[in-house]
Amino acid sequence: MVRVRGVHKSYGALKVLDGVDLTVDEGEVTAVLGPSGSGKSTLLRCINHLERADRGLVSVDGELIGYRHGRRGLRELTERRILRQRSSIGFVFQTFNLFPNLTVLENITEAPIATQRRPAAEARDHAAELLERVGLSDKAGEYPRRLSGGQQQRVAIARALALRPKVLLFDEPTSALDPELVGEVLDVIGDLARSGTTMIIVTHEISFAREVADTVVFMSEGRIVESGVPSRVLDSPSHERTAAFLAKVL
Ligand code: ADP
Ligand code: MG
After folding, report:
1. Which ligand has the minimum distance to the alpha carbon of residue 15?
2. Residues near 223 by Cβ (< 8 Å), separated by ≥ 6?
3. Do the Cβ atoms of 45 and 230 come closer than 8 Å?
4. Neighbours of ion ligand 2 (CB under 5 A)
């Protein structure tokens, strides 16, 4: 479903991604671990073309992201087509990023109506279903500021699902939450995993990664230095940096 090939990205002299390859099959969950600054967020942002890679390509469900093949090589797509592609790639941020001036329901229906041109009634029905799925049916009319961080993040997940994405990307979805609110968000993500949603999850929650991920990859200095089933990577890492990182976070 997701194919990342040879992606490089620098900011000035700082090399942030140094040739990343990653494949995520349909229905599979990949957890991305690694120290701060290793390029995890940049990788997610390159996948949905929020950042333009300097080199390398990304495809989702066989469709090249951000480019098309022209007669003289690759041409970048128009902003409109990129936005349309991006709407099939759900993104859940560390800090929720809900629209503060819209209700919970409006947060969820905004993009389906505005970007995907779905009928408002259909978008609202779907939003109601999604709110039930994340356990917030009673909050449809609330504004984000009246919700806890865990509730806001569950709304953000419902909002991402409303676009019926082919893949969901999570960037440390529980890092900004008080400890007692982490579980409710991980429960929702775990449910999605069990129902076959394709996901890439950057997280420091090691036991969660072990439980829900099909594959754990470990990033260090812009490269994936290790990749495998959770038990293999987490219990017997083959790279010394993975071992050092795990010793610190476990
Ligand atoms: P991670 O998510 O693993 O902590 P990031 O992908 O956020 O790592 O960042 C990797 C490195 O790139 C960091 O050193 C960060 O400061 C730098 N970086 C990220 N985004 C930018 C940017 N827009 N401009 C300059 N440097 C950036
Ligand atoms: Mg990050």
Report:
1. 1
2. 18, 19, 20
3. no
4. 40-41
Compute the distance from residue 138 Cα to the ligand 2 centre, in Å.
32
Which tokens is 69 given? 């093949």
CB 138 within 8 A of CB 157: no
Residue 250 has pLDDT above 80, yes or no: no
For residue 182, give every residue at least 6 positions away whose Cβ sits within 8 Å of its Cβ, in sequence order, or none: 150, 174, 205
What is the C-alpha R_g of the chain?
18
Question: Are the beta carbons of 67 and 94 closer than 8 angstroms?
Answer: no
Q: Is 137 helix (H, G, I), strand (E, B) or coil?
A: helix
Closest ligand 1 atom, CA of 12? 25
Could you read off the pLDDT of 163-192 as tens digits, one per residue? Answer: 999 999 999 999 999 999 999 999 999 999
What residue owns the CA closest to ligand 1's atom 20? 42
